[in-house]
Every structure is written in C-alpha cells, then in structure tokens.
Amino acid sequence: MTDHRLIEITHATHGVDIDLVYATARNLTGKPIYRAAHCLLLEPAEVALRRAVELARQIGTTLRIFDAYRPPQAQQVLWDFLPDPTYVADLKRGSNHSRGTALDLTLLDAHGEELDMGTGFDAMTIESEHFHPGLRADVQRNRMLLLGVMHGAGFTHIKSEWWHYELPGSHALPLIDNNASGPLRLM
Q1: What is the set of domains in the chain, with CATH numbers?
Q2: What pLDDT, in 10s, does the model give residues 86-125?
Q3: Distance of alpha carbon 43 from alpha carbon 36, whole angstroms
Q4: Of 46, 129, 161, 166, which is the active-site residue?
C-alpha cells in the first residue's frame, strides 16, 4: 500500500449508495462537519471496496457508505466532541479514515432499506459492538452478513463499531492531509 492517491467513490462508478452523514446534521455532533462531501478512498481500499460491492450483490444487497476518507481536521472535530478512544481514534494514533483506508457502511436490501443492525450508525454505545450479547438473531445475522462481505473483500473490523471496516496494516501509512483531498471541505 504505497500509492497515496484518493479515488472518488460514486453510485455511478461503484454501484453503492452514498449517505455521507458528516455532511449533514445526522451525526453524533448534531451539526455538519463537511460543507461539501465527496466519498474518497485510498486506491488499495477502493480496489477492496469493488470486491465488497460484488460480494454484496451476490447475496442480493447493496452497500450504503456513511463515511470514508476523513481529513485529520474532521477527526479533530469528532475527538473534541467525544474524546473516547473506544469510539473515536486518538489523535496521537490517527484514524484510518484519515489514511483513506477505512469506511463506515451498512447493507441495503433489494428494496433499498437498511438491514436492521440493532443500533444506528454512530451510536457510540456498547450495543454497537459486533458481537454484543443479547442482540436479536436477525440483527446478529445482518451484522454477520456485513462482516462476511467485508472480510471476504479483504477488510477487517474493529470490536466497538459494527459499521467500521479498514484495510489490515493501515496504521503503517501516513495520514493524508485535507489539502490532498481536493473537493472535501470542512465546515
């Protein structure tokens, strides 16, 4: 993973649904973080996403992306709002979103409805853990479907967020400054 080129992800080019919540007030801060958002991934993550899209299609689902590349400045906004390393990457370590190798997403059924994952995106609670005990069977099955699609495409997950996936070894990469992101702008 040495290429640091960010690739734009769109519905037309990748067959995904895009709902970048940080460009809206529908996120944990309650206010937009991006003024104008574009869904971007580092080239190796974009290649893995294409595999994930195909795997999702094979089970009759579509990926909905909530966030991908996140400039370090946006990570600072999230950290300032919720300085809890369980849910927001510590700025000293840096977020893999800011490396362009992580994305937050869910699955849509054939009718374009989100599969029930038990909590909403950005629900920073223990119930958001991938394998939280006590989840209904259908919720756990939906999380396992997403997990299988993303692992099959080469991504890995983190324990605390059912929606977060990243390329293994991402922490070895440098953070990508907002200036490199072109169209992504912060509020």
Answers
A1: 6-186 (3.30.1380.10)
A2: 888 887 788 999 999 999 999 999 999 999 999 999 999 9
A3: 21
A4: 161
Distance CA 5, CA 45 (A): 11
Helix (H) or strand (E) holding 53, with range, is helix 43-58
- Would residue 161 show up in a list of annotated catalytic residues for this protein? yes
| Burial of residue 69 (number of CB atoms within 10 Å: 0-12, 13-18, 19+) | buried
HSE toward the beta carbon, residue 24, CA cutoff 13 A: 8
Ligand-binding site membership of 104 (annotated)? yes
Q: Residue 171: is its pLDDT beyond 70?
A: yes
Q: Which residue has the higher pLDDT, 178 or 10?
A: 10
